[in-house]
Design brief:
The complex is a heterodimer of chains A (about 120) and B (about 120). Chain A is built from no helices and twelve strands. Chain A is an all-beta fold. In chain A, a hairpin with a 2-residue loop joins strand 7 and strand 8. Chain B is mainly beta and about 120 residues long. Chain B is about 0% helix and about 55% strand. Classes of the chains: A mainly beta (about 120), B mainly beta (about 120).
Chain lengths: ~120, ~120
Amino acid sequence: AQKITQTQPGMFVQEKEAVTLDCTYDTSDPSYGLFWYKQPSSGEMIFLIYQGSYDQQNATEGRYSLNFQKARKSANLVISASQLGDSAMYFCAMRENNYGQNFVFGPGTRLSVLP
Amino acid sequence: DTEVTQTPKHLVMGMTNKKSLKCEQHMGHRAMYWYKQKAKKPPELMFVYSYEKLSINESVPSRFSPECPNSSLLNLHLHALQPEDSALYLCASSQETHRGSGANVLTFGAGSRLTVL
């Protein structure tokens, strides 16, 4: 069963506007971490933001924030004030603390920022 | 600066060639990973080394042979590959892999783009 779902294969946003990229996950481990990565066309996977399952506050890193709704098992990424350089693939990922050593990646969302 | 360095950036090889991909990190991380990524797909885990010991092999064909000579280096030896093995190969590292290490971020290299003719 797929553990990470990203329902938006592609998204468009106007420059300077905010955009939300959806991510839902499935786990029975009470302790886990959720991550967002950005992959430009160059190929490198760039870490953006992390949210722990026990964190009380939503994570924020500059223009990135994570809308964490634990009961709904969702961890949406919000990018504020979009820039042309934000155009890339975005992957949501999860690592379960007690099961396995692997990061599980979602299928990704391709974001295109329009001038 | 990229903290995980992968060489070469591009590699073209024939099906009978033997080549190697190399990865190096100097962050003191004790876990290193190889991922394979096909176009428009997420990365797929191939191997995990924890404290220089192979801890995960995701049923990867034997034509891919990993090696971890020390805590900073990770190699992927390639032999008799098939055209379908053409992909982006990503190396990553993290502090730990043990239980409770959920917060450990994977730091990726820029990848080696492999084409098998």
